[in-house]
TrEMBL record:
The keyword tRNA processing applies. This is Poly(A) polymerase. InterPro entries: Bact_CCA-adding_enz_type3_sf (IPR050264), HD/PDEase_dom (IPR003607), HD_domain (IPR006674), HDIG_dom (IPR006675), NT_sf (IPR043519), PolA_pol_head_dom (IPR002646), PolyA_RNA-bd (IPR032828), tRNA_adenylyltransferase (IPR014065). Residues 259-410 form the HD domain. CDD domains: HDc, NT_ClassII-CCAase. It comes from the Bacteria. Its cofactor is Mg(2+). GO terms for molecular function: metal ion binding; nucleotide binding; nucleotidyltransferase activity; tRNA binding. Keywords: Magnesium, Metal-binding, Nucleotide-binding, Nucleotidyltransferase, Transferase, tRNA processing.
Length: 478
C-alpha cells in the first residue's frame, strides 16, 4: 500500500490496539481477521469511529469460541447472519463471517451463505468506499474495487453494477443518500441513474428500515446533499412525498425558488441554532424534522391572488396533519410524531402578533401551548426567518429577542411552565356542590382561561369569579 494509506492504517492500529490483540487470537486459532467497511473508510478519512467492524474466514460458532473469555461481553443476536458482537474496554466490535449471500429480489432479507474469501465478501458490499479491508496479521491493504480512488474523489459507486446492487438490496439507495449527507460525497452518475430508474424498488423495504436511514441522514452535519439526492432521483416521492411536493409551491415572499428550497434553508439554519442558541443541544431529530416539514401544508393551501400574490392560509394546520400522517407511516415513535406535528402547528404563532405587541396573556398562551417544546419552537421560528432583506431580518430577530425577554421576565414572577387554574377539581366541586362530571371540566377550563388571561389570582378572587361564571351558566348551586 502507498505511504499515505500505510500511515493512516498504522494510526488506526494505534488508536485501537484491541484490533491487533484480537487478530493475534484469531491467528493462533488458525484464522484470518480483517478490519473492514466503515472502520477502514473512516480511518482513511481521518474520522474517529467508536465501533470497529471485522470480517473473518472463521464460521460463527468458531468466532464465539475465539472471543469467549476475551471480551467483556459477547452477544450472538445476529449469529444467524454470521455476526458476533463483542464489547471490550468500552468499545463495541462486530465480527462477521465472510458472506456470499444470494437474494430473491422480492424482499430484502438474503439467503445467508458464508463465503471463503475476503474478495468475495467485499464484492457484496454496498459501495466501493466500504469495500476496503486491512489484513490485520500482515497489515496488508486490500482494495479490489479501487475504493481508495473513490474516497479521494469523494464519490459513491458500487462494487458490482448499481442495478445488481440495488436489486439485491434497495435499502442501499437510501444509504447512498445518507452517505452523501454524512460524508459529503457525490453519487456516481451511474448510481444516480440506477436510483432514478429503480426508485419504486424501495417499496420492498419496511417502513422501520426506511425510517432508520432517514433519521441517520437528517442527523448528519449537513443533510441537504442527501435530501436533494432523494428528491432528484424520485426516491423522495416514495418515502417523503410531502417534501418533494413542496417544489410546486412558490414562496409567498418570493425570496426562494420554491418552498422546497426555503425548507432546506430553514433546516440548515435550525441546525446552526442547535449549537448557537441557548440552551444548546446535540443534533436534534425532532427539531430537524419540524424544520424540514414546517411548510408541507403550503401546496394544499396555495391560493393565487389578484396582482400576482400567493397566500397559504392555515397551512400550519394542514401541515401539522400531513406531518403526523407521514411520520406515523414511517413508524416514528408517538413522542416524535406528536412533538413534530405540534411544532409545525405552532410555527406561525409568533407572526400573529405584528411587531411584538405581546400582552402578558399572549405570552402565557404561547408558553403554555408550546409546553416542553418551547426551546425548540424558539429555534424553529428563528430558523424560519429566511428573508434576504437584512433590515427586515434584523427586525424579526429583534422582535423575537423581545419575546424571549418577556417570557423570562414573566417566568421570574410566576410559574409559566405549569399554568393551572387557581382552584383544583375538588375545590370546584365543593364550592359549587357538584359531583364528578362534565360541569367540573367546564369550570376547570374557565378558570384555566382566566389564569392565562390575568395571571395568578388570590383565593377569594378566584372563588368570586368561579361563582359568577357558575351563576351565568346555570351550573351547580350558584
Amino acid at each position: 500500500m502507498n505511504d499515505v494509506v500505510e500511515k493512516q492504517v498504522v494510526e488506526l492500529m494505534q488508536v485501537s490496539p484491541l484490533a491487533e490483540e484480537l487478530a493475534e487470537r484469531f491467528a493462533r486459532a488458525g484464522h484470518r481477521l480483517y478490519l473492514v467497511g466503515g472502520s477502514v473508510r473512516d480511518a482513511l478519512l481521518g474520522r474517529r469511529s467508536g465501533d470497529l467492524d471485522f470480517t473473518t474466514d472463521a464460521r460463527p460458532d468458531r468466532v464465539l469460541k475465539i472471543v469467549s473469555g476475551w471480551g467483556d461481553a459477547v452477544w450472538d443476536v445476529g449469529i444467524a447472519f454470521g455476526t458476533v458482537g463483542v464489547t471490550k474496554k468500552g468499545m463495541q466490535l462486530e465480527i462477521t463471517t465472510f458472506r456470499a449471500d444470494s437474494y430473491d429480489r422480492v424482499g430484502r432479507n438474503p439467503e445467508v451463505t458464508f463465503g471463503d474469501s475476503i474478495e468475495g465478501d467485499l464484492l457484496r458490499r454496498d459501495f466501493t468506499v466500504n469495500a476496503m479491508a486491512v489484513d490485520l496479521a500482515s497489515k496488508t491493504f486490500i482494495d479490489p474495487h479501487d475504493g481508495l480512488s473513490a474516497l479521494r474523489e469523494r464519490v459513491l459507486d458500487t462494487p458490482a453494477t448499481p442495478q445488481e446492487s440495488f436489486a439485491d438490496d434497495p435499502l442501499r439507495m437510501l444509504r447512498a443518500a445518507r452517505f452523501a449527507a454524512q460524508l459529503d460525497f457525490a453519487a456516481a452518475p451511474r448510481v444516480v441513474d440506477a436510483m432514478t430508474s429503480m426508485a419504486e424498488e424501495i417499496d420492498r423495504i419496511t417502513a422501520e428500515r426506511v425510517q432508520a436511514e432517514l433519521s441517520k441522514l437528517l442527523l448528519a452535519a449537513d443533510p441537504r446533499p442527501g435530501l436533494e439526492l432523494l428528491v432528484d432521483t424520485g426516491l423522495a416521492d416514495r418515502v417523503l412525498p410531502e417534501v418533494a411536493g413542496m417544489r410546486l409551491a412558490i414562496d409567498e415572499h418570493h425570496q426562494h425558488k420554491d418552498v422546497y428550497q426555503h425548507s432546506l434553508t430553514v433546516l440548515a439554519q435550525a441546525i446552526d441554532l442547535e449549537s448557537s442558541h441557548e440552551p444548546t443541544s446535540e443534533p436534534d431529530l425532532i427539531l430537524r424534522l419540524a424544520a424540514l416539514l414546517h411548510d408541507v401544508g403550503k401546496p394544499a393551501t396555495r391560493e393565487f391572488q389578484e396582482g400576482g400574490g400567493v397566500s397559504f392560509h392555515h397551512h400550519e394546520v394542514v401541515g401539522a396533519r400531513m406531518a403526523r400522517k407521514r411520520l406515523r407511516a414511517l413508524k416514528f415513535s408517538k413522542e416524535i410524531v406528536d412533538d413534530v406535528s405540534q411544532l409545525v402547528f405552532l410555527h406561525l404563532r409568533f407572526h400573529g402578533y405584528g411587531k411584538g405587541e405581546w400582552t402578558d396573556s399572549a405570552v402565557r398562551r404561547y408558553v403554555t401551548d408550546a409546553g416542553p417544546l418551547l426551546t425548540r419552537l424558539h429555534k424553529l421560528v428563528r430558523a424560519d426567518c429566511t428573508t434576504r432583506n437584512r433590515r427586515k431580518a434584523a427586525v424579526l430577530q429583534a422582535t423575537y429577542d423581545d419575546l424571549e425577554a418577556r417570557i423570562a421576565a414573566l417566568k421570574a414572577k410566576e410559574d409559566l411552565d405549569r399554568v393551572r387554574p387557581d382552584l383544583n377539581g375538588e375545590q370546584i366541586m365543593a364550592l359549587l356542590g357538584l359531583k364528578p362530571g362534565p360541569d367540573v371540566g367546564k369550570a376547570w377550563k374557565f378558570l384555566k382561561e382566566l389564569r392565562l388571561d390575568r395571571g395568578p389570582l388570590d383565593h377569594d378572587e378566584a372563588v368570586a369569579e368561579l361563582k359568577k361564571w357558575a351563576a351565568e351558566n346555570g351550573v351547580g348551586d350558584a
